[in-house]
C-alpha cells in the first residue's frame, strides 16, 4: 500500500486531491495536514511514500517547507 500525505491549508484543495487519488487504481492510505507544522508531526509518526504540498501556508518556514519535509521521507 502506498501512503500519501496531502499538505494544504485549503480544505477544498485537499478534498480535490483526495478525490482524484481515489479515482486511480491501487490501494492508498491518504493522510492530511493543514500546515507545515502538522505535516512534520505526521512525517515523524508515519512512513510516507508520496508528498503533495502547497508551498505557501501557515507555519511554513525553512524547517517545514516541502524540501525540508522530503528529507524526512525514507
Question: What does this entry look like structurally?
Answer:
The protein is of the alpha/beta class. It has a three-stranded parallel sheet. Strand 1, helix 1 and strand 2 form a beta-alpha-beta unit. The model has no long low-confidence stretch (mean pLDDT 83).
Comma- or semicolon-separated keywords:
3 helices; 74 residues; 22% strand; alpha/beta
What radius of gyration results from the CA coordinates? 12 Å
Strand order of the largest sheet: 2-1-3
Strand segment tally: 3
Helix content: 25-40%
Beta-strand percentage? 15-25%
Number of helices: 3
Q: What's the end-to-end separation, in Å?
A: 15 Å
Order of helices and strands: EHEHEH
The biggest beta sheet is recorded as: 3 strands, parallel
Averaging pLDDT over every residue, what do you get? 83
Tertiary shape:
flat
Task: Give a quick rundown of the structure.
With 74 residues, the chain is α/β, with parallel strands linked by helices. The chain has 3 helices and 3 strands. Helix 1 links the parallel strand 1 and strand 2.
How is the secondary structure organized here?
Layout: E1 2-7, H1 11-22, E2 28-33, H2 36-45, E3 50-53, H3 66-70
Parallel strand pairs: 1-2, 1-3
